[in-house]
Amino acid sequence: MNNPHLKEQVDSRRTFAIISHPDAGKTTITEQLLLFGGAIRQAGTVKGKKTGNFAKSDWMEIEKQRGISVTSSVMQFDYDGKRVNILDTPGHEDFSEDTYRTLMAVDSAVMVIDSAKGIEAQTKKLFQVVKKRGIPIFTFINKLDRDGREPLELLEELEELLDIESYPMNWPIGMGKGLHGLYDIYNKRVEVYRPENNNGERFIPLVDGDIPSDLPLHQDSVYRQVLEEVELLVEAGDEFDTEKIARGDQTPVFFGSALTNFGVQTMLETFLQFAPAPYAHKTEAGEEVSPYEEEFSGFVFKIQANMNPAHRDRIAFVRICSGTFERGMDVILGRTGKKIKLSNVTQFMADARENVEEAVAGDIIGIYDTGNYQIGDTLYEGKLKVQYEELPSFTPELFMKVSAKNVMKQKSFHKGINQLVQEGAIQLYKTYLTEEYILGAVGQLQFEVFQHRMLNEYNAEVIMTPMGSKIARWIDPADLDERMSSSRNILARDRFDQPLFLFENQFAMRWFADKYPDVELKSLM
Question: Which residue from 45, 75, 185, 196 has the fewest beta carbons nearer than 10 Å?
Answer without folding.
Answer: 196
